[in-house]
Write the structure tokens for this entry.
Amino acid sequence: MAMTLKVYEVNRTGTVRVLREEAEVIPLERPEASHEFPACECPTCDEGAW
């Protein structure tokens, strides 16, 4: 299954600037460990509030 990806930025006034045109990409079956986000270390998560 392919998906499309387009990278753009929107400034405070709402102006859109395309950084990378739309392209078709094939998602990975399983992301590599180096692509994962680290565990959250904020005080709220440390206290187990979630």
Residues 43-46 form the longest helix (4 residues). Strands lie at 3-10, 16-25. Helices lie at 43-46. The chain has one helix and two strands.
